[in-house]
């Protein structure tokens, strides 16, 4: 289940309120079991295990990304989904990421404190997270990741059966993403320089 909440008020008020809520949850992990929390400029997103199709899409992408990074020197890069990141002061928990662990930043309260070493973030949308994953209505994750200098951001938009690739941020902004239909091969540029097969997603969206 993935839930989100948004509240009215000034940006300063909301930021302070969200910070208090998240500090309280950090201090009392027994309240939330396996739920982890993302923050946005307008709300908090509570993330817990999603549906089976969502997981199968993630697993299919993980297998292909592991094959891609296997071409690099042993241990240089890895594919994971077991960390959250602080990005521009907000908490983000990508569905997948590719990272150079030799450049991993320090962790605090279960979150890596910046995006050092991150080459790629991946999100597979769910109803409650789609707007922030795509940056609909506010900059969302594309805005935060571009401002932080994340080279590549891949989004599987289940609602519209498409894949969007944001890349090469300049002046802290991604240009318009490259859009692919599900079933098309997605080209991942350097340092990957490989294609990602999306045919397997056709029966999962």
Give a verbal description of the structure.
It is a single chain. The chain is α+β, with helices and mostly antiparallel strands and 205 residues long. The protein has a single domain, classed as tt1808, chain A (Alpha-Beta Complex). Helix content is 24%, strand content 30%. The strands form four sheets. It has a six-stranded mixed beta sheet with strand order 4-7-10-11-12-13, sandwiched between helices. Strands 6-5-9-8 form a four-stranded mixed beta sheet. Strands 1-3-2 form a three-stranded antiparallel beta sheet. The longest helix has 18 residues, at 52-69. The chain is globular. The chain starts with a strand and ends in a 9-residue tail after the last strand. The relative contact order is 0.12. The model is unreliable at 1-5 (pLDDT under 50).
Quick structural summary:
This is Putative restriction endonuclease domain-containing protein. This protein has 205 residues and is of the alpha+beta class.
Roughly how many Å apart are the termini? 17 Å
What would you give as the CATH superfamily? tt1808, chain A
> What's the total number of strands?
15
Q: What's the story with the biggest beta sheet?
A: 6 strands, mixed
Shape: globular
According to CATH, the fold-level topology is tt1808, chain A
Q: Hey, roughly how much beta strand do the residues contain?
A: 25-35%
User: Rg, please?
Assistant: 17 Å
Structural class by secondary-structure content: alpha+beta
